[in-house]
Amino acid sequence: MARKLKDLGVEVIDSxxxxxxxxxxxAWTLIHEPGAVPDAQRAGDKTRFLPPVxxxxxxxxxxxxxxxxxxIQLVQVEFVRTGTPWxxxxxxxxxxxxxxxxFVALERRLEQPPDPAILAAFDAASRQQSxxxxxxxxxxxxxxxxxxxxxxxxxxLNNWVSRAxxxxxxxxxxxxWPLFAKGRLLSEHLIFALFAHSIMFLMLTLGALWNLLGVxxxxxxxxxxxxxxxxxxxxAYYGSRWSDAVAKGWIHSVTYVVFLWGPxxxxxxxxxxxxxxxxxxxxxx
Length: 285
Hints:
Elements: H1 2-32, H2 36-42, H3 52-70, E1 73-89, E2 94-107, H4 116-126, H5 134-148, H6 154-179, H7 186-212, H8 218-238, H9 242-274
Antiparallel strand pairs: 1-2
């Protein structure tokens, strides 16, 4: 019995330390020699580097854990007054003026007090009856809450994004398929997608740390770092020329962000608005 417990203990310790050493080795090789880790995985070499799914889980866990411990917010919406704020709903659109809003990513929680005039404009629009329905009022209510607390959406956004990525990664791979279809299986694109998202989480963690230190521009630097890695990795993994890697890398990134993440984030916003509407409005009662 003692022997079995000892063997189990040795196995657990060996697993922990081999896992701990594999993470930095895999991450460093991914950055230093882009394409080497996906190539090894595609060739069936599972001893030198962390498997793609485990690396992705590790990178994403470290990112969200860092956000939780540091107080860095994934996304905040900052409203800035430019005139006399006004907001109203019509039968076809939402209108407003006298202010602008901007997205702030990977920054400390914005502490400046909300502008009372902007809050009052959204509050009035959230109670508007003529020309507005329940959905319009719910939208204005969410906007009012966001103007009051720029980080309010993070309470559900973090969980939502972490789950949505399991859908987005196969779509990421599908976007690679027409760009690098020759002689490649879809599973090979999926392996690349897992490593690419792991690198993105690593870059975002470094960007958040950069902002935590007060330097700034961490999110922009993270995106630039990812695009550089993507270009080098496409060249190494797919054997592309530099010109093709640069062009196809930008085509892929723009398509992925604008045509996939854009509608998905808009859907998230509508889902948040839907939490403030009644079941009767959707015909569920």
